[in-house]
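Cross-posted from the bioinformatics board.
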Amino acid sequence: MHLLSITWLFWIWITVSLYWIVPRSGRVELLATITGIFLLVHAPVSGLVLVVCTLITWSVARRAAVTTPVAIAGIGVLVMILITFKLGQSFDHLRLLETVVIPLGLSYYTFRCIHLILERLKGHVEVVCFRDVVGYLFFLPTIVIGPIHRFGDYRRDLIRQRFDPDLLSEGVERIIYGYAKIAILSNYLVGAVFGRYIDRIGDDAMPLSLYLTTVQEGVNLYLQFSGLSDVAIGFARLLGFRVMENFNWPYLQSNIAAFWRSWHISLSQWCRDYIYSVVVSISRSPALGAICTMCVIGLWHEISFRFLAWGAWHATGIIIWQRSRMVTERYSFELPGPIAASVHVLKVVLTVHFVWFGFVILNADGVWAAFERYRLMLLFWL
Amino acid sequence: MYGYFHRWFGPVAAHVLCALWFSALIVGIILTSFEPVVEIRYGRL
């Protein structure tokens, strides 16, 4: 089921209608039940895995004092579940198993489970009841494509919740904008119209055609992904929850670190809190922190060499930025207004091209195919 | 969006413009939904 389909709109409509009809005390149970039915209908394997993950998380988070060994054991099992399915999918072409299907939303809800366990370990979240854990993990708006919202935000909204027409209006508006991004901007304008223009250029101007395809893929990915996030955020608002934003104009950022603070924000903040901070506090090396974080982000999407290479590409960019910042901070000087504005624009252009060229690694058939595409684009005279 | 329209054109015009704006978006979404859906090649989530 694609989230653009009428089926998804039906699920939104039925959920929101029932949610505000039932008494407040039964809403968490209702939403969890609807999520369970949704998974049973569209992705039963995912439903089963989510139940297992919920029980593991609950068995750790319910303890009055979560100790480090218990937390590590719980997280270890969750990570093993995630890796097992991802590896199975990665080696599916070898036909080791009949068909390996990644359970719907697995990457998102395992990270939510790990987040809850770690927050309990740190003491940022008090003892949780089973209802809270189930309500948080069986949250239909974010189950399919995120964002990886935080438990604290969820519980705060649950406590404060009341029927708010303004929030309802914001939710509908957000869903319409999300669908407009996907259907009008991405599928029609960038995918179809711009695609036909690229086709017309064809082989006569191969480097330009390849470059425009790279731009098209980058823009499309943003519009599709942020559109789906908008729909999820809008759906959550219809239920009275303010789920965290996932994108904040990522292609207008002037450096790669700022890009990662505004692209897939829920994932990058998760990795910053639980990987980057930990690695840097142990090793005192921001470069090592960037390498570990970007590799995890890459492998979180898919366990494959191309995603590892994509993670390494971004880690390289961040390390270069970290090093260059040391120099620019030492020798910083004020530039006149127009020159400073031009430099800013140049930085934005460089950053966005770095990101788009990184996506080539994912979109080409393998890393070597990506190198061939770079050669045809940038060294076409050779 | 209503807030922007209200600030620029006043309350009455804001209602009309808002209705037109969202109607246009919904019609646009329906019309362009006949195009094939773009495949997201961004890993298996």
